[in-house]
Amino acid sequence: MILKNKLTKETLDISYSEFRTKFAKEIPDAFESYRKTQLNKYSWNFKDDNSLEFNFYFELQCNFNHFRISNWYIEKL
User: Fold this and answer.
1) pTM for this one?
2) Cα gap 50→28, rounded to integer Å
3) Which of 2, 25, 6 is closest to 71 using CA atoms?
4) How many CB atoms sit inside 10 A of residue 12's CB?
């Protein structure tokens, strides 16, 4: 997984487990923003949070980059 900093142009090449550890605070924030957006649009389509969480992680690169305001973004999985 390759992450890039928007301000310093620094690049990180880390594994998924390292990503989960390093961005432990940002991932739940991004998921919560994604969850609120999706429930406002398609509340009838989701029976529980498990399907929302599955969809969030299925498109992790896009969702992390767009639903979290951060200097870091996922450039490549």
Assistant:
1) 0.83
2) 14
3) 6
4) 15
